[in-house]
Design goal:
OB fold (Dihydrolipoamide Acetyltransferase, E2P); about 350 residues; 6-stranded mixed β-sheet; Rossmann fold
Length: about 350
């Protein structure tokens, strides 16, 4: 396992009396692609800015490669940041923009020219050396900003929603490019986004944040398949989150019907929340299902059909390659492995922010 490169310890930060980060602890391994994911205002960009040296935490420390860099200015850190706003120098050519950091480091002209060509090829903008930034589209400018950061070969690349301005196809292409770059260059990537699909596609590790707290840390598969609370379940993809009762180990009652599951340790006859992903709901003929319902909405999504099925007074969201017309009576079943049991929040506060672990 790769060594820990960055360790954020007990980081708190408030602006105008408003707490943005509350005793945040997080470590990042060398050559990891870690994504900070959460809604606007959850503290993810503030965390990135503290890492980059653009903000100082009120309390806590930033340890980088064993050294405390909390008070170190941005230009003294082995980090490069790619911002939402491209921050290109408008009076310089693309080549001059990319070469800026290398010139400061007194690299040779040959080295710089090779690096410019290499970087432009990486971001699919070969031949743009002599263009000016204002002649490029927003997406092209963002790719130049990424190229400018990469040529400096930082140990860590901080990316603050860098693909937000790109159209869908280009955004998907750039996601694959960034994964390739990370593997090729051996750089640690710390990425901020509110786009769940982007996080699931690119990350080794996802940190889900809300209201200044970390809600869950894990691989994309674990975050998606085993959310630790209702916020994570609801934020990452679509979910059916249903108040239920854990009858005993491996048996849960959902909307009055008993379903076998694989979870244990929740006690007997305890109130729990159940998470079932739309693609895990099995529709069949009424006789074959554990409960029956009626299809009330149907949308074709290309890869699958999205349906709403009313059963036992609940609107189930279902994704299926099979099509059941509106008005059809159907049976509903779920594989025991696809029923995720979660403890009910102990308080309304906890419900809002999750458990800060």
């Amino acid at each position: 396992m790769n060594k820990i490169l960055i360790d954020l310890k007990n980081i708190s930060k408030s602006f105008d009396g408003q707490m943005v980060l509350d005793d945040l602890n997080l470590y990042i391994r060398e050559n990891e692609f870690l994504t900070l994911l959460g809604p606007s205002g959850c503290g993810k960009t503030t965390t990135l800015r503290i890492l980059g040296g653009f903000e100082t935490p009120d309390t806590g420390s930033v340890i980088f490669d064993g050294k405390d860099i909390t008070k170190l200015p941005p230009n003294k850190r082995q980090l490069n940041t790619v911002f939402q706003k491209y921050a290109l120098f408008t009076h310089m050519t693309i080549a001059e923009n990319i070469a800026f950091g290398l010139k400061i480091k007194n690299k040779s002209k040959t080295y710089i020219n090779d690096k410019i060509k290499y970087a432009l090829k990486l971001v699919n903008l070969e031949g743009f050396e002599n263009r000016m930034p204002d002649s490029l589209s927003g997406g092209q400018q963002q790719r130049i900003a990424i190229a400018r950061a990469i040529v400096n070969e930082p140990k860590v690349l901080l990316l603050d929603e860098p693909l937000g301005a790109l159209d869908l196809k280009l955004r998907q292409d750039m996601q694959y490019e960034l994964i390739r770059l990370k593997n090729e260059l051996g750089i640690t990537f710390i990425y901020v986004t509110h786009d769940q699909e982007e996080a699931l596609t690119m990350s080794d590790t996802i940190v889900v944040m809300n209201q200044g707290y970390i809600q869950q840390i894990g691989t994309p598969e674990k975050i998606y398949n085993e959310p630790e609370n209702a916020f994570v379940a609801d934020f990452i993809g679509d979910s059916n989150i249903i108040s239920s009762t854990m009858i005993e180990d491996k048996l849960v009652e959902i909307l009055g019907t008993k379903f076998p599951c694989v979870d244990t340790g929740f006690g007997c006859n305890k109130p729990v929340d159940v998470v079932i992903r739309p693609e895990d709901v099995i529709l069949s003929s009424p006789a074959k299902g554990k409960m029956t319902g009626t299809v009330t909405h149907l949308i074709f999504k290309g890869v699958h059909y999205e349906m709403e099925v009313t059963a036992a007074g609940y609107e189930w969201l279902v994704h299926s390659t099979g099509m059941f017309p509106v008005g059809t009576e159907v049976g509903i079943d779920v594989d025991p492995f696809n029923i995720q049991i979660m403890n009910k929040p102990a308080s309304e506060d906890e419900e809002a922010v999750g458990v800060n672990e």
